[in-house]
């Protein structure tokens, strides 16, 4: 079943960190997780919401409000994607559907996947994996590459820092890897939370059953911090610093030593 409308909170043209080549990244609003380090807190709630915007002019600050998220039809999203087709062809790029969690609006997503397929556009889907396996099975043949997040292997820690169990996420990742889907694992390096020795070893063990696994290491950053205040949300990561380049390289070296194909950055 197809759905013609969904809630999108951003469309980025000329993105270079969301899959191969130059891409158009379409951000779906709504996420079932609540990761403490999320730098897109405006993506969590599915409905459009108001964010405060501050404009500094001379010595005064003017506050305005703007709405994040808008309803778009499949055809409106396709119009945005089609503007960039020439760049896809020249760079080996395509479209990336990201979020939030794209599968929160699964029927809308599947309609868009089908449209992109018709136009032979390369498709990446960036997912938390927190989706029914039945839905994932329907979508998988339409997707060229999954960008799949692994955060924490300990289920209690996953519940504590991300708000949900990791059981479904890991089961779906197994399904994709066993069915031969092209998957890039994305691992957010959050100092003191995800980069513990125990977590790194458990991730390596989980993935060691599969060959040619690609892992992208994504460094925690504070870019989204101000959005929490402007959305009236609490920020829990105040004391956490961005990992150093040396620390990122240590983690890259660890996974490389286990025969994974590792890249620092998306
Ligand atoms: S899964 Fe991504 S979008 Fe959802 S809360 Fe976590 S970091 Fe934010």
From TrEMBL:
GO MF, one example: metal ion binding
4Fe-4S is among the record's keywords: yes
Residue ranges occupied by any Radical SAM core domain in the UniProt entry: 17-259
PROSITE patterns in alphabetical order: RADICAL_ACTIVATING, RADICAL_SAM
InterPro entries named in the record: Aldolase_TIM, Organic_radical-activating, Organic_radical_activase, Radical_activat_CS, rSAM, rSAM_sf
E.C. number(s) listed in UniProt: 1.97.1.4
Keyword Ribonucleoprotein (UniProt): no
Pfam families on file: Radical_SAM
Class of this enzyme: oxidoreductase
Keywords attached to this entry: 4Fe-4S, Iron, Iron-sulfur, Metal-binding, Oxidoreductase, S-adenosyl-L-methionine
Cofactor: [4Fe-4S] cluster
Entry's family note: Belongs to the organic radical-activating enzymes family.
Protein's UniProt name: Glycyl-radical enzyme activating protein family
Source organism per UniProt: Denitrovibrio acetiphilus (strain DSM 12809 / NBRC 114555 / N2460)
High-level lineage: Bacteria, Pseudomonadati, Deferribacterota, Deferribacteres, Deferribacterales
């Amino acid at each position: 079943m197809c759905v013609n409308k969904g809630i999108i909170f951003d469309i980025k043209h000329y993105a270079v960190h969301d899959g191969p080549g130059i891409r158009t990244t379409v951000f779906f609003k709504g996420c079932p997780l609540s990761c403490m380090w999320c730098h897109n807190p405006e993506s969590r709630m599915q409905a459009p919401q108001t964010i405060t915007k501050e404009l500094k002019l001379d010595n005064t600050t003017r506050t305005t409000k703007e709405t994040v998220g808008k309803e778009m039809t499949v055809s409106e999203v396709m119009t945005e994607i089609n503007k960039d087709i020439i760049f896809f062809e020249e760079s080996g790029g395509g479209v990336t559907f990201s979020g939030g969690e794209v599968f929160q609006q699964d029927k809308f997503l599947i309609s868009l996947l089908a449209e992109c397929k018709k136009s032979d556009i390369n498709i990446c889907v960036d997912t938390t994996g927190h989706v029914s396996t039945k839905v994932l099975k329907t979508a998988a043949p339409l997707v060229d590459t999954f960008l799949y997040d692994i955060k924490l292997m300990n289920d209690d820690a996953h519940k504590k820092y991300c708000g949900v169990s990791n059981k479904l996420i890991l089961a779906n990742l197994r399904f994709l890897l066993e069915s031969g889907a092209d998957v890039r694992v994305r691992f957010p390096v959050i100092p003191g939370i995800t980069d513990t020795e125990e977590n790194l070893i458990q991730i390596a063990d989980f993935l060691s059953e599969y060959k040619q696994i690609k892992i992208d290491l994504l460094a925690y950053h504070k870019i989204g911090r101000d959005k929490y205040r402007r959305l009236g949300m609490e920020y829990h990561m105040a004391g956490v610093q961005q990992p150093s380049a040396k620390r990122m390289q240590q983690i890259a070296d660890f996974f490389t030593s286990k025969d994974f194909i590792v890249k620092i950055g998306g």
